[in-house]
Design goal:
heterodimer; A: 465 residues; alpha+beta; Immunoglobulin-like; 4 domains; elongated; B: mainly alpha; 6 helices
Chain lengths: 465, 171
């Protein structure tokens, strides 16, 4: 994933600029500190002259009053501006370029633009700092003419981000008035960066759809599955002559059926713990994106179910388009938190086909999600739970036994894992063991194989227990 | 795009741990020193006001206390006013002092906002202001020096001028 999803420059502005290449934006004018300073310094001798009746004091005030009078008229002009971004969609870690031009519509001393971004986007390579997430970037200022600014922005966290702002400041000729306008940067969609998964985990039961995986059932595939006695109707070219010669009766080769797997990734959004950018929800969404990409590339059918209250799902499908449908659907998870308990019985069979392998990314903090994993297993689905919790609870500093509390919590987590595994639900830590503290700069985009690789050797069984 | 002034990133002024004093700030400090020295030369008894102005100017030099510049200018005006009241400062000298105050305030503004368009461009835009200020001061000095008898018409003319100035500013 090196290229942004979109191609070519496109207008990324705003209600104010209305997406036009260069549109007039009204400025809000206010007096500057220079104006107030001139007024207060000039007022003192003026008042003294009036109160004390000494016209000589007016001589001290006259230059300042003259300077005020020369540029006292409040400007009325607007500023022509354009905001363009190189792409409106990208993956985590990719760079976008935001270009802004601003040109005052009248005489001005200076004009400047400043970009403010949400914490998920960081300006890289600017003089004020490198890779600072969020906050305002260093302002770019020019003379009274056209100002051009270009910022390279790195997407650091998946989601839909529309809180980018560009502050345009114009200082009128003489410096007595400053006009400001705030432009919005159009929503930037950052897709989760999918971790790689080379060894696919497959359910024991493959559906009847044609795919790339050899099934146990014999059919017209290409993978040799065994030899059986000839029956009328078999093709003569399938006769296995060595076996026929040894056994004295006609035998034919039989081949394994080639079927597609159906995988459903479940994202547990009922709880979100951990540092922003590496929270359990961030990891869960990245993991689901990794599952979607790996299986769609292999020609399998992948769907996603998001648990956050009222559930959302994407029915299993194939192809690159399905991958983008899935990553698009999970972007709104962070905004849609709800206290409604998710009800898996409401998921239609088309979203959760019988025999589909369920890979659930969950921090295992909410009983509702744990209950759903158990329910799915009891309904016969093969279920794997990837524990995405990245942090341990921080006990109070002055607590009598912080170590003891943490140990009890860890023991409870182990007991939960044991309980799930005894029910036939293997639990794996992803990307690492949840007991280990994850540093804020830790790269969560490790391979999914580290967690799921051990299931690739033999297929995951479902069925009633 | 042709002929456009390419934007340049402005250095963070007086930000962070280091104290950065720009050339414009130093020029403002120099102008302020002259501005405060003139009334003291004319009347040495005004030195407390001048010292207050110098202290304020120095305190505001790094740009962390914007009101310090105003305080320095006010100190100069007070010192000049004392000199006028005592008769030690002549009206032409007061006109020069007023112009120096204006020059100091213009330099202070340049130090605070940065000379984004270049020094020459800034000087070209501010020199007419300074010239107008000096001319206004000299005209006012000449008018103050002339013995004009008290007249209600004069008061009316003054009020009318003030009203016209307000209308211009509001328009």
């Amino acid at each position: 994933m090196t290229a942004a999803v979109g191609h070519g420059d496109r207008p990324a502005a705003t209600a104010a600029c209305d997406g036009q290449p260069a549109a007039g934006v009204d400025l809000t004018w206010a007096t500057t500190a220079h104006y107030r300073r001139l007024a207060s310094v000039g007022l003192l001798p003026l008042l003294a002259a009036v109160i004390l009746g000494r016209p000589g004091y007016l001589v001290l005030a006259a230059p300042v009053v003259a300077a005020l009078a020369l540029a006292a008229r409040r400007p009325r002009y607007a500023v022509r501006c354009s905001v363009r971004s190189s792409a409106g969609r990208c993956f985590e870690g990719e760079q976008l370029v935001i270009r802004v031009t601003a040109e005052p519509g009248g005489p001005a001393d200076s004009a400047g633009v400043q970009l403010s971004l949400p914490p998920a986007l960081a300006v890289t390579g600017e003089p004020g700092g490198r890779g600072r997430p969020g906050g305002p970037a260093a302002p770019v200022e020019g003379g009274g003419g056209l100002v051009e600014a270009e910022w390279r922005v790195t997407a650091q966290r998946w989601g839909r981000w529309d809180s980018g702002r560009i502050l345009v400041t114009v200082r009128s000729r003489g410096g007595l008035f400053a006009g400001t306008a705030v432009l919005g940067v159009e929503e930037i969609t950052v897709f989760p960066r999918p971790p790689s998964l080379r060894q696919l985990v497959l359910p024991a039961q493959l559906r009847t759809r044609i795919g790339d995986h050899a099934d146990r059932r014999p059919a017209d595939g290409v993978e040799f599955a065994g030899v059986r006695p000839f029956v009328p109707g078999d093709q003569l070219r399938r006769i296995n002559w060595p076996a026929t010669g040894r056994r004295g009766a006609l035998h034919v080769n039989q081949f394994a059926a080639e079927r597609a797997a159906e995988i459903v990734a479940v994202i547990d959004a009922t709880a979100d713990a951990g540092p922003p950018g590496d929270s359990s929800l961030d990891r869960a969404v990245r993991g689901a994106a990794g599952i979607a990409r790996a299986y769609t590339r292999a020609g399998d059918r992948v769907g996603v179910i998001t648990l956050y209250g009222p559930m959302r799902w994407i029915a299993p499908g194939i192809g690159q388009r399905q991958f983008f449908r899935i990553v698009e659907s999970v972007l709104d998870v962070r905004r849609l938190y709800s206290f409604v308990s998710p009800d898996m019985t409401r998921v239609p069979p088309i979203a959760l086909p019988a025999g589909a392998l369920v890979i659930m990314f969950s921090p295992l903090l909410d009983e509702r999600a744990i209950g759903i994993a158990i329910d799915l297993r009891e309904r016969g689905y093969p279920v794997i739970v990837a524990d995405v919790l990245s942090t341990s609870p921080a006990p109070p500093r002055r607590s009598a036994g912080p170590g003891l509390a943490l140990r009890i919590w860890r023991l409870e987590r182990q007991a939960l894992r044991y309980r799930l595994e005894s029910l036939g639900i293997p639990v794996v830590g992803w990307p690492g063991e949840p007991r280990q503290e994850a540093g804020p700069g830790e790269d969560a985009s490790v391979r999914l194989d580290t967690a799921l690789g051990r299931f690739a050797r033999h297929r995951v069984r479902g069925g009633a227990r | 795009m042709r002929g456009a002034i390419r934007g340049v990133a402005v250095r963070a002024r007086a930000a962070g741990n280091g104290v950065h004093v720009s050339r414009a700030a130093l020029a403002a400090a120099g102008t302020g020193a002259v501005m405060l020295a003139v009334p003291v030369i004319a009347m040495p008894a005004t030195w407390p006001a001048a010292i207050t102005g110098v202290a304020a100017g120095l305190a505001g030099l790094p740009g962390r206390w914007p009101a310090a510049g105003t305080l320095a200018a006010v100190a100069a005006v007070v010192a000049g006013g004392i000199g006028i009241a005592a008769g030690a400062t002549s009206l032409p000298l007061a006109a020069a002092e007023g112009t120096l105050v204006l020059a100091y305030l213009l330099m202070l503004d340049a130090a605070e906002t940065g000379l984004t368009g270049g020094r020459l461009r800034w000087a070209r835009s501010r020199l007419p202001v300074l010239a107008a200020g000096l001319a206004a001061a000299l005209i006012t000095a000449a008018a103050a020096a002339a013995a004009v008898p008290a007249s209600p018409w004069l008061v009316l003319a003054g009020v009318a001028a003030a009203g016209a100035a307000l209308l211009v500013a509001a328009g």
